[in-house]
Design a protein that fits this description.
This protein is an alpha/beta fold. It has 15 helices and nine strands. The chain is globular, with a radius of gyration of 24 Å. The protein binds adenosine-5'-triphosphate and magnesium ion.
């Protein structure tokens, strides 16, 4: 049976070869299959209003981030002929929403959001652990960029814990992020790179504390307040513990925006608890949300203004306070 089928296929193929050229047909079939693959996991029609609404609804206490992300992503998506890929660098202490915002951007660009085949997340400790030579990682990265962007120019690359990445490896990224970036015939001008790191977190916290001490509201903090953006890039560039140190990405101004994530206050943590309740399909309970939020650690020790862990482990804390019924739902 199998042999019979094979014969039929060979017969058909030989006819096709004679009729129109086997290679042409193969190329057409290949391109059809690739299109099918990309269609199933493609782009959403981009909608600035939808991104704005999503940021308003799902991101708490990060007015600078909302503003810069909305403007930079929207203008980049609308630009038919950008001169370089979009490169955003997110900075801030733990649990303030860096991964959360990367996911918000992804779900406004790709049908499958962060789970799209075109969103590539790399975590240095996981993907480039020390031990192997960095030139091997470097070669792997180049291959990944070229392959993915060749097939799908609007690919997204997220580098988490960028401060733990080997500086040599960071320098590998340079040609791909540059103006009019074209590497081995592949144009990178439609790609998106997002770097996440805790580097610069202390500068951001200091600025936020200064504002608080001066009696100003947090909303008054702007991207250029007390030269915040410049201070972050300087701090990141000079930090001995940061992979960015002396990195050519910063020297060559290839990062479009260094975006500061402010430390979160009690009211934001409370909002995170309420959001978690909705996520877990619990009835919203503001008293319980308040209790859970207050149970999180805050700093400075005396004034207790900012949450040490941001909104991290809010769900775990919520479970501690919830009745057994809720727990059984998940066990
Ligand atoms: N500003 C925020 N608004 C809404 N939810 C938030 C915010 N910050 C954090 N969260 C919630 O807390 C979770 C943890 O935050 P996230 O992973 O984004 O922190 P991070 O800044 O990446 O921290 P780390 O530096 O430790 O990796 C998110 O999945 C989200 O549910
Ligand atoms: Mg993170």
């Amino acid at each position: 049976m199998l042999a019979q089928n094979l014969l039929i296929v060979l017969f058909l193929l030989s006819n096709i070869t004679l009729a129109s050229g086997f290679l042409d047909v193969l190329a057409a079939v290949g391109s059809y299959l690739v299109n099918m693959y990309l269609e199933r996991d493609g782009l959403l029609p981009f909608d600035t209003k939808r991104l704005k609404a999503d940021l308003n609804k799902s991101l708490f206490g990060q007015h600078i981030v909302s503003d810069v992300v909305l403007k930079s992503v929207s203008s980049f998506m609308a630009d038919r002929n950008p001169n370089k890929p979009l490169v955003l660098s997110f900075h801030g202490t733990s649990g303030v929403g860096k991964n959360h915002v990367a996911n918000i951007i992804a779900r406004n660009i790709y049908k499958k959001g962060e789970n799209s085949k075109h969103v590539h997340v790399r975590v240095p400790e996981l993907h480039f652990p020390p031990g192997e030579h960095s030139h091997i990682y470097s070669a792997k990265l180049k291959k990944l960029f070229l392959r993915e962007v060749y097939w799908f120019p609007r690919s997204m690359f997220i580098f988490d814990e960028m401060d733990k990445m080997d500086p040599q490896l960071i320098d590998t990224l340079k040609p791909f992020l540059d103006y009019n970036a074209r590497v081995d015939g592949v144009s990178f001008r439609n790609a998106i790179f997002i770097f996440l790191s805790n580097a610069g977190g202390n500068v951001i916290v200091e600025t936020a504390l200064d504002f608080w001490r001066e009696g100003k509201t947090r909303e008054e903090i702007r991207m250029n307040s007390k030269e915040l953006e410049t201070k972050i890039s300087q701090n990141v560039l000079n930090d001995k513990n940061s992979g960015f140190q002396h990195s050519s990405l910063i020297d060559h101004h290839l990062v479009d925006h260094f975006i500061p994530f402010l430390p979160l206050e009690l009211k934001h943590v409370r909002q995170c608890v309420l959001a978690e309740m909705v996520h877990l399909k619990m009835t919203e309970d503001t008293d319980l949300a308040d209790k859970v939020a207050r149970d999180m650690p805050f700093f400075p020790e005396k004034e207790k203004i900012f949450s040490v862990k941001g909104c991290k482990s809010v769900r775990q804390k919520l479970f501690l306070y919830s009745d057994e019924e809720l727990l059984f739902q998940f066990l």
